[in-house]
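FW: tagging you since you asked about this chain on Friday. Here's the raw sequence from the shared folder, copied in full. Didn't touch anything.
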Amino acid sequence: MNDNAQAKEILTQARDHLVERIVNRIVEAREEILDDAMGESYMGEIEVIYEQLGGRLNHVNAMLANMPAAEKAESRPAGETTTDLESPKTEEQAASFEMFVREIRRGDIEAAGAALAELFEVDAARGQRCATVFADQLRQEPEFMVKAMTLRGHLASGSHNASLMLLWECFGLQGLEAIQVMELLQTRMMAT
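HL: got it, structure written out here
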């Protein structure tokens, strides 16, 4: 195993441990978190958990996102170059919110779900459910697209509550899953 693969494995294990610790803390502090969320407590349990563990998880995710991709060229004979068919995804080909919106407008929920699965780093079934939630909201409320477009601004400004609320309203993501997607998207925005 090369150093790059070993580093990724270590960071992945660290991420999994942190996620497990966050889940345990959330379950243990259920009442305090709910009271904090409803404004009935000023203990700040949500912030405490985020400061103690969420920040670390964010850093680990950022390091993972910045690790170099595995080289496919290693298995190619020396001097051989890729053809256009073998070339890696470009910015235009990679899944993007623009691609997701285009597929939603075409009514292709399956393709939209595949784009979200790649963007959110979730499995295909979860990507499909997220795309279905979005499409349903858009059918019920045509101006919903404008609301959804504010997500990027909230992510960029670090408005965690607004970002999490939009991830719920737009894609049906909640809890730890929403936090992971939010952090992933913020990390990608910082890298660009």
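FW: Residues 92-191 form one domain.
HL: agreed, and Confidence is low (pLDDT under 50) at residues 70-93.
FW: great, closing this out.
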